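Entry 12.
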Amino acid sequence: MSKIKAVFFDQDGVIIDTERDGHRVSFNMTFKEFGFTDEWSVEYYHELLQIAGGKERMKHHWKTNGFSKPMSEEEIDNLVKEMHKRKTALFVELIETGKLPLRAGIHRFMKEAMEAGLKIAVCTTSNEQAAKAITEKVLSDIQFDEVLAGDVVQKKKPDPEIYNLALSKLGLSPDEAFVVEDSKNGVTAAKAAGLKVIVTTNGYTEKEDVNAGDVIVSSLGDDNEKAQLRKGEINGFDGVVHVKQLMELFG
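Predicted 3D structure (tokens):
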């Protein structure tokens, strides 16, 4: 019998492919509203994704490139908070209007986890409001035991704090849960917490070094988009990853 009692999901890039057409677009819309000419390209935003947290990315952009209007440290600190609040509202609108579809297989996989009696948690550095828009509206039929988001931890991924917190809240040891991640920072955080990891790469993360993951696939897969297995062995794999296969593998 498998020891696995829970599955933890990262949000951005795992549940919804949010980075390129969600967060990046929302940042650019916000900059324009606030009177800046700055626009983050697809390639540049990939660089910024190596920094966890939207407020942190804006601050990094200010330090390295400067915004189109000069500002002092105090001005940028206050403005970043304002802009991030607005950016989150725009991002939530994109989710709620259905402009950002779920990744292949994610809804099916979560339903399988529920049917298997597993606890389900979301562990993300994304804003709490954005996380709730996904878990309470887009995935309203999924029962989430924990949604840990935003500033619930002091240290963001690649630090393992958010995964350690999830284990603590659910009263589990690391060998009783596994993680679905998509990025190097996320995999590093999960492995540092002692967790097994399946990596579902996307357009932004497929070139990142995620080899620390135990299993690497192109997605969780469904009838319309079969997954490619890039690392690891899944018993009976046919292009669709099932919860029971991973419970057997990791448990």
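Annotation: The radius of gyration is 18 Å. The longest strand covers residues 119-123.
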